[in-house]
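Q: I have two molecules that I believe assemble together. Could you output structure tokens for the complex as a whole instead of separate predictions?
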Amino acid sequence: MTQNEIVTGVLVDEVTLTLEEAAQACGVEPQWIVERVEAGFLGDGSMQMTYWRFASHDLTRARRMRQLESAFDAVPELAALVVDLLEEVERLKRQVGSA
Amino acid sequence: MEFRDYYQILGVAKTATTDEVKKAYRRLARKYHPDVSKEPEAEKHMKEVNEANAVLSDPEKRAAYDQLGSRYRAGQEFQPPPDWDAGFEFSGPGPSPADDADFSDFFANLFGHTGRARHGADDFRMRGQDRHAKILIDLADTYHGATRTITLHVPQADEHGRVGVRAHTLHVRIPKGVKEGQHIRLSGQGSPGLGGSPAGDLFLEVQFAPDARYRIEGRDVFQTIPVTPWEAALGASIEAPTPSGPVQVKVPGGSQSGRKLRLKGRGIPGTPPGDLYLVLDVVLPPADSDKAREIYATMARELDFDPRGKMRE
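A: Yes, here they are, computed for all two components at once.
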């Protein structure tokens, strides 16, 4: 690739990630993702095992959970709770935004 | 390149046990956690702390670093001697202070490789790791599409497996209609693969640069628009600057501050596009001249208006 070439990516929400791709992107084994989807910590609860797809929000959420579990030895339930709270804080911050 | 004292970064003694390293890391990970920290440069500190932990919590890396580090102080000019890590075999998956796309030169030079690849196991194949970074864009960029340039410092091995740091500059097309928090996946722009395997991908998380003029909810955009008291009271056609360019807007008579004017489809582009809400902000002219004070005094005399009336009911 030349220095000035413009690279074009794909939006993860338009071409969602497979289970394996999501695991690779998070640096975890697919089973790590499966366990958290089955426990309801990831995904919207509607995923069928035969067709799991992951969008930007799932990716952000999974990476945050993995970081919390790894840094603090947090159990998945606690990591999910912290991520829920972080998301709520972000929502409230947006709500009290300037306009 | 400056030498980094990982013990100093974590605030532990060189004799610290694994438990003490872990405890120090957790304390700092909480202090500098980018999602909640109010510390200045929290993200930069968190990267340093992650790097320090990646080395000091790994017995092999720590032993190699200790052997090297005994001759250096923090901030001292540093180049790793040839074969500085001879006799050590790093078994981890290469550079991994989390999966940040931007390593310090120091970390990348020392640990930016896998030991197995460097020690000549030609038949070892592994796809490169995926990497993550954030990219800051303006709201206007998502209305029109844009190209943004980002530079990441990444380790790169030469044909002998020796690692250097390369500035990896990318000109990235920002697709029209991208929302905050979405990821742009750049195939093959992550860490290089080993043994001829493909490189990983680079995921760029989109963030909007803070802009006090706008509030964004999904694809809907809220923009405060100042109006004069007579425009709000009598109604007017005004020109409003919006992210997609100036538009003529009709302000209905009898409007108050906070009234929202919805401009359908003028939010962030998409299928369907979001809406743009102009939030009226009635701004009073200053009473800084005899004429202005006279007008306010006339209003006080002539208008039967009590904004606190309902509070007394």
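A: One point stands out. The longest helix of chain B spans residues 42-56.
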